[in-house]
Amino acid sequence: MSVLTPIAVPPRPAVAPRVVAKAWIFAFLAANVMLATVFFALGDLSDDPLISAGRLAGIYAAQAMAVQLLLVARLPWLDRRLGMDRLTSWHRWTGFSLLWLLVAHVVLVVVGYAGIERTNAADELVQLANTTEGILRAIVAFALILVVGAASARFARKRMAYETWHFVHLYTYAAVVLAFTHQIAVGQSFASHPAARAYWWTLWLGAGLAVLAGRVLLPLRRNLRHRLRVVAVVPESPDTVSVYMTGRDLDRLPARAGQFFLWRFLTRERWWQANPFSLSAAPDGRTLRLTAKAVGSSSASLRSLPIGTRVFAEGPYGAFTTIHQQRPNALLVAGGVGITPIRALLEDVSGHVVLLYRVRTPADAVLLPELHALAKTRGAVVHVLSGPSDLHGPHGPVLGPAALHALVPDIGDRDVFVCGPPGMTSAVLRSLRELRVPGTQVHAERFSLAA
Length: 451
What we know:
Elements: H1 17-43, H2 49-71, H3 76-82, H4 84-117, H5 121-131, H6 135-152, H7 154-157, H8 162-169, H9 171-186, H10 188-191, H11 194-226, E1 228-237, E2 240-246, E3 260-265, E4 275-278, E5 287-293, H12 297-300, E6 310-317, E7 329-335, H13 339-348, E8 353-359, H14 368-378, E9 381-386, E10 392-393, E11 396-397, H15 401-407, E12 414-420, H16 422-434, E13 442-446, H17 447-450
Helix pairs in contact: 1-2, 1-3, 2-4, 2-11, 4-5, 4-6, 6-9
Organism: Amycolatopsis carbonis
Cofactor: FAD
InterPro entries: FAD-bd_FR_type, Fe3_Rdtase_TM_dom, FNR_nucleotide-bd, MRET, OxRdtase_FAD/NAD-bd, Riboflavin_synthase-like_b-brl
């Protein structure tokens, strides 16, 4: 008679991986701000305080633009430790900081020169554009950044298809090139000292090469090597389907349970669409599987994918993996189709596991037979919590702090992995804060990005 035992807990790093990554990023930013400020003081000061302040704002804007590129370069080391959702959030806030720095740069410099020339700001801007090399390019770059910033606002983003939003953001690369040529042409800190020129060339080339490597070369290399293709399409429910893929040397693909890819299925109708879907089973070196719910025309059409379809996959992405597990045991919380990365994690997470699966009706609980089979094999506990979004039980809201503590009394001693719709995820995170579960033990992925 076999004895069910949880997966053994592997050795954990002394410092959490995301803490290490954050420390490196903050050290990088601090060093760059210090260097840029020193080079500014050496060569970019003006007798007019407005012009000096405007130039300094422009220097910091140039740094913010380079950081923007690094945040979206999808570098594996950063992505595995911080996750695309956190990097995307930082990219968004850096973008708005960049926008305001550019506004300050333009306004302060133009007003400063207008004061010296004793003219109005509009006339001074036209005069600078007509007489100073690089200014017109800077104006075009500023206009492109304004367009991208407007498209990134929440009200605009919600009304825009992903492909349209992505196309608009490609203008950022044109703005980067124009801004750099403007800096070369008129940037005093760029021309003031050989060390300053070396610094700025290194920063801009490093950021550009990072984007080229992470967004183009690495995906091309992996796809040429692994050559994924569809081998099975299996309906899991009336509105949910699993797609199985195989390829070459998949044991060398650095994918982990909980991660996701941007998938392009190379049919005539779909090749131009890149959709993010999580792996719904831990990679086994032979096949990859995604499971998707029909929430739009793109995911609904997966059911009709021809067997043998070639697949171009960008990834793996995401920090929602067991490399961040700090405690011996774990709690997994899934909502709706957010069960897909959670189901994969159930194979990989260490120690004793409790799984809470929140669905509107029992029929919505896809992959449930697999979950029960895995739970039986490894001695885990599965609770399916079905009912409307405002469902209350004996301890209040079913995912409230009292209910979570009743279901998992030792919740404070477990790592908690949460994946589901943004509203559910936010509610669970609030409950965990009320229960004083340490933040280093909480790992969340909002399924609006990774699903």
